[in-house]
């Protein structure tokens, strides 16, 4: 028996059967492949599975996947050969978020944080086992850090906002995330081993805010706090980044206080909007 997802994907492709082999059919097929790869999650999607799920020929699926990889909409792991959502989709998602959800509700808080601190404020969200920077708001202080730009992503735990998100999860969820990210941490983030991230999580919980003491980019420090939804689950994180000399212990506590204030303000606003809908 076909899996329901396979059936729906096949119908989406077959719905274009009467359309010429040109643009519309190709767009529909490409969209279906993007959806199927996204549904595969962190493990990625195999070419063989995508062929079965779409009921298309191997050359057709391979040709379209190659085009999507070339456009940055998909990535292919060079070792497993599995397909994953690509970096350009995160950028597009960032742009779309300006109209929906957390991003617009957070804008006033981000402006206040950047102006009160003088430094750079960020809004981040979790996506699977990664954290994505949705927005960067620069403050008036003339020396700025360039650790994150809107659309950048790192494994959960890498950076202040990302660490705040990770620390707000359950221990079981953290173990699962670190297990999935083990290879990428070893390959690209040598300073962030599993034991190191677990220690940082414990310190974050004890301190009440996440601290990145220049571990990702030398001289670029940051602090962050989680934004929580109705069930107490983290739905985002606010963070402030500055040069090392501007984030001593006293100032960390001061900035943590205004970060918490703005996180609570966003949570209240989201709750009010939810009650109205």
How do you describe this structure in short?
The protein is α+β, with helices and mostly antiparallel strands. 51% of the residues lie in helices and 17% in strands.
Can you walk me through this structure?
With about 280 residues, the protein is an alpha+beta fold. It has two domains: about 5-85, Winged helix-like DNA-binding domain superfamily/Winged helix DNA-binding domain (Arc Repressor Mutant, subunit A, Orthogonal Bundle); about 90-275, GAF domain (Beta-Lactamase). The protein is built from eleven helices and eight strands. β6 and β7 (about 220-230) form a beta hairpin. It is globular and about 65 Å long. Residues about 1-20 have low confidence and may be disordered.
Tell me which CATH architecture of the largest domain applies here.
Answer: 2-Layer Sandwich
Mean pLDDT value: 87
Low-confidence segments: 1-21
Helix content: 40-55%
CATH topology of the largest domain: Beta-Lactamase
SSE run: HHHHEEHHEEEHHHHEEEH
Characteristic key phrases:
277 residues; alpha+beta; Arc Repressor Mutant, subunit A; Beta-Lactamase; 2 domains; 6-stranded antiparallel beta sheet; two-stranded antiparallel ribbon; 11 helices; 51% helix; globular
Question: Could you give the topology of this structure?
Answer:
Blueprint: H1 4-14, H2 23-39, H3 47-54, H4 58-70, E1 74-76, E2 83-85, H5 87-96, H6 102-117, E3 120-127, E4 130-137, E5 153-155, H7 160-167, H8 171-180, H9 182-188, H10 194-207, E6 210-213, E7 220-228, E8 234-243, H11 249-276
Antiparallel strand pairs: 1-2, 3-4, 3-8, 4-5, 6-7, 7-8
Helix pairs in contact: 1-2, 2-4, 6-11, 7-10
